[in-house]
Amino acid sequence: MKFIIHNPNQLWYKLTLGNLISGKSYWKGKYEFFFDYLYQNNEFVYVYLDNGNSKKYLERFKLYFKFLLWIKINKLKRKKFKIFYDIKNLEDDFFLFTFFHLNFSSVEEINKKRFINFSNALRHSKVKKIVNLSHYGYNSSIGSINLKNAEIALLISENNLFRNSLFFNHYFGWYKKDVYQIPYVPQKRFIRKKAFKNRKNIAMAIGSITLPIKDSSFKSFFKHEILQPMRLKLFNEKDNHPDLYDCYISKVVSKNKNSNPLLTKLKGLLIIYNYIYNKKTESNLSIDRKYHSYDMVDKFNDYKMFVCPEEIIDLPAIGFVEGMACGTAYFGKLDPMYSDLGMIDKKHYVGYDGTFEDLLYKIKYYQNNLDELHEIALNGQKFVNQNFNANSVSSKFMTDLNKMTLINKNYV
Predict the structure, then answer these.
(1) Interval 218-255: pLDDT, tens
(2) Distance CA 132, CA 80 (A)
(3) Pairing of strands 154-157, 180-181
(4) In a 10 Å sphere around its CB, with 0-12 CB exposed, 13-18 middle and 19+ buried, how is residue 223 labelled?
(5) Which residue in 176, 165, 177, 183 sits closest to 313, CA to CA?
(6) Among the ranges 13-17, 52-56, 370-374, which has the highest mean pLDDT value?
(7) Which phi and psi angles does 364 have, rounded to 5°?
(8) How far apart are alpha carbons 245 and 306 in whole angstroms?
């Protein structure tokens, strides 16, 4: 099975140039595990580099130069990659893997011509297109049009949104089949390091609160602009319940747009050079994320329980598997996004009804029933280690794709 990865240096797979320049060299992509699986198990990794204007030679040079830098900072081998700038003539034995966000839509610039150009390029290609719906809540109506035009074979997500999300079905109603559910995979550094009895008997609340969503599709459906309302509630109430939870939730703030573009690029190149050649790098943080200002593994190991609230568009946060892998009991909504993965309430995690009041009630209950909580934490850690590891998730995904392809030769 031939996979061709679209713009692997963009955001999702490894350390990106942008994160390195921003001082977040520890911040790897959520789907690094899948890229590593392809990199380690194939002679070549096929790559499609495109920015909606890649037919021009100058644009191709820019794409290739950025890709080479990305290879360098991630210590990959150039000879492992075969690069394409046009997929029109590729045969249908290729599976193109790409993401909704930044390719079909984005937070801003919803009329970007490159989204339309990319959609049209996919439409005229024979390759089987697989799209991950990460961040699909941004400008969903525009993104849905581009997605439908591209004639996508399969949508994937951390939740079967076709069955479990009213928001998804409102804007993506043309997609009449299951969204393939692929769970998050915690990085190997997330492990249990501290005995349960030595941890704080309160919850740890984590996550980021992103900027208000301004587009009309989101606001008309939810009647507000907040993507993570439960995180905002925990953040606003943090001083009122110090006996129940410590708040490590923070708000993302806007980037500074007044900096000189040329100086910013030169400084970025210097940071990249220093990183590649193991010299000191500088931090240029443009967003405030308390969530990423400390060692998450150590922090999870300081607490018996934690909450990492879901997004209102029916997507979980990657923090839930990271914390569970550290042996910390997870408190999450009672929702099919978890039960469809095989997680059982009061066995692998603690389910609550989605309200702030019920969450606090459940925290209080388990503060006084530590044997039950400890058993849940142990079961949760075991479940994540057995079912959400890189090899099992990646190999299952490949096996399932083979089965679906055999059943339906057209894969649509």
Answers:
(1) 999 999 999 999 999 999 999 999 999 999 999 887 65
(2) 24
(3) parallel
(4) exposed
(5) 165
(6) 370-374
(7) -60, -45
(8) 8
pLDDT for the residue 263:
66
- Tracing tokens 């089949």 back to the chain, one arrives at 177
Report which DSSP code applies to 207: E
86, 90, 95, 100: CA torsion to nearest 10: 30
pLDDT in tens, 37-60: 999 999 999 999 987 766 678 888
CA distances from 386 to 90, 119, 346 (A): 37, 38, 18
Whole-angstrom Cα distance, residue 25 to residue 135? 22
The dihedral built from the CA positions of residue 59, 65, 70 and 71, taken in this order, carries a sign that is: positive
Q: Which two tokens stand for residue 152?
A: 């996508």
Closest CA to 333 of 320, 314, 316, 352: 352
Residue written as tokens 């990199």?
39
The rounded distance, in Å, linking the Cα atoms of 397 and 407 is 15
Residue 39's alpha-carbon distances to 35, 182, 367, 412, in angstroms, are 6, 19, 45, 27
CA distance 316 to 331: 12
Q: How do residues 297-312 score in pLDDT, each as one tens digit?
A: 999 999 999 999 999 9
Cα 329-333-335 angle, rounded to 5 deg: 120
Rounded to whole angstroms, how far apart are CA atoms 379 and 337?
18
CB proximity list for 259: less than 8 A, separation 6 or greater? none
3-state secondary structure of 4: strand
Q: Are 341 and 185 in contact, with CB atoms under 8 Å apart?
A: no
Query: Which residues lie across from 247 on neighbouring strands?
Result: 205
User: Regarding predicted confidence, which is higher, 197 or 53?
Assistant: 197
**Which two structure tokens, joined as six digits, stand for 258?**
């007044």
**How many other CB atoms sit within 10 Å of the CB of residue 352?**
21
Q: CA angle 104-110-115, nearest 5°? A: 35
Three-class DSSP category at 96:
strand
Q: Please provide the average confidence, as pLDDT, over all residues in the chain.
A: 89
